[in-house]
Design a protein that fits this description.
RNA_pol_sigma70_r4_t2; 0% strand; sigma factor; mainly alpha; RNA_pol_sigma_r2; RNA_pol_sigma70_r2; transcription
Length: 441
């Protein structure tokens, strides 16, 4: 656990809050380590959840153990042994695991640190988590199942959060995740680092999953926080590992550049109380210059090893335009428009078109952008998303069509699932028709 994470745990106090803090920080590593030891992906997640449930009962009663992650890991391993006992009387795997635990096992809340040290190899941790990502992206699963499973077991998102991202009911998503785990078990997918050929085969899925995890961390789809830095930084960490694993793959560097350059703005994106700060109002002196340097270096590497930028590289180039601009007004919006046009040809989507419209409005005015948004509206592909009415409302406001803007923004408020973002839209509505009205982006 990093020093900053320990500080966060210390601030969280004891009992249930500590359980939640440790789980948020360590769940992916705990599941990955248990998967390595049990060789059973689904069992690893089940016993990790059982250890979490036991912590929720024990820690508030007995206090937080000295080594919280080790405690969870030890309990999870004990539950795995129980499961093996149930499945088949003392087989070879159980014997090997039991020897590591010792006669009778350590008592709950006992010296978990000793057991933790036996099981937790610091040099193995990154490989464990990355292996977990590659397993979740195994070709035996559909692309949707790959993304959902990784978000669940590596990203730590709830089924409801993933369901919202996919725009499906929570029950549907839960069933999809359950089927994915059963499919992996039926296919007897081993828990082992993939071979170089397997890495290349699954790389597209892995990058897609890491991008989605980062996106949820940088713009939460629901809940009371606009940013989820823990989630975003986990995606960054794994992106760095992937880029090192496949140094000749341009898109791996492109994704790393994108997440570094985007995360560089985090320190200025929220106020102390968590309220969002829009781009035009951000204090650019607070942007993380080291992250910008890392992101620009990764973008240069993507250009060096590839035959032109891919979808992630193009988005990183857009982020670079923002990173090097002294202000919104001095941003090279025409270049951003060109980059979005290229992205639209390479990876067309209604969200890309919406972003291109925003850039067009900044470069050439709202009248040039509104037809692009209306074309997206006509396709119906963003029905149910607050993004389209919020952008359309802003363009209408800037065109002086106040009542139409009001209807769009009211719709955006109803559709938006994130409380912080909803506050921004409400403020926009309250100040509509006045000079105090902020831009929606």
């Amino acid at each position: 656990m990093a020093r900053g994470d320990r500080a966060a745990l210390s601030r969280s106090g004891g009992g249930r809050e500590a359980v939640e803090a440790v789980w948020r920080i360590e769940s992916a590593r705990i599941v990955a380590t248990l998967a390595r030891y049990t060789g059973d992906f689904s069992l690893a997640e089940d016993v990790a959840q059982e250890s979490l449930a036991e912590a929720l009962v024990t820690w508030p009663r007995d206090g937080v153990p000295r080594n919280p992650a080790g405690w969870l890991l030890t309990v999870g391993r004990r539950r795995a042994i129980d499961a093996f006992r149930r499945r088949s009387a003392l087989d070879d795997r159980y014997a090997a695991l039991a020897r590591g635990l010792g006669e009778g096992g350590a008592p709950a809340g006992g010296d978990a640190a000793r057991d933790f040290d036996l099981l937790w190899d610091p040099d193995q941790i990154d490989d464990d988590v990355l292996s977990l990502v590659f397993i979740a992206c195994h070709p035996v699963l559909s692309r949707e199942a790959q993304i959902a499973l990784t978000l669940r077991v590596v990203g730590g998102l709830t089924s409801t959060e993933i369901a919202h991202a996919f725009r499906v009911p929570a029950a549907t998503m839960q069933a999809r995740i359950t089927r994915a785990k059963k499919t992996l078990a039926a296919a007897r997918v081993p828990f082992a680092p993939p071979s170089p050929d397997e890495r290349r085969e699954r790389l597209g899925s892995v990058l897609g999953v890491l991008y989605l995890i980062f996106t949820e961390g940088s713009s939460a789809t629901s809940g009371g926080d606009w940013l989820r830095p823990d989630l975003a930084h986990e995606a960054i960490r794994m992106s760095r590992i992937v880029a090192r694993l496949v140094p000749g793959e341009s898109e791996a560097h492109g994704l790393l550049a994108l997440v570094e350059l985007t995360a560089a703005r985090f320190p200025a994106r929220v106020q102390d109380d968590g309220a969002p700060v829009l781009l035009a109002d951000q204090d650019r002196r607070r942007w993380d210059r080291a992250a910008i340097r890392r992101g620009r270096a990764a973008l240069a590497e993507a250009g060096r090893v590839g035959r032109g930028l891919g979808a992630y590289g193009l988005q990183a180039a857009i982020a670079e335009c923002h990173a090097v601009a002294p202000s919104v007004g001095e941003t090279d919006w025409e270049r951003i428009v060109v980059l979005y046009e290229a992205l639209g040809r390479l990876a067309p989507s209604p969200v890309v078109e919406l972003n291109r419209a925003v850039a067009l409005s900044m470069a050439r005015g709202p009248a040039a952008a509104l037809p692009v948004v209306d074309d997206v509206l006509a396709t119906g592909r963003l029905d149910g998303s607050h993004l389209l009415p919020s952008v359309r409302g802003e363009l209408l406001r800037r065109l002086g069509r106040v009542e139409e803007a009001r209807r769009e923004l009211e719709l955006a408020v109803r559709l938006c699932q994130n409380e912080r973002e909803r506050d921004v839209l409400r403020h926009k509505l309250a100040t509509l028709g006045t000079e105090a009205a902020p831009p929606c982006w």
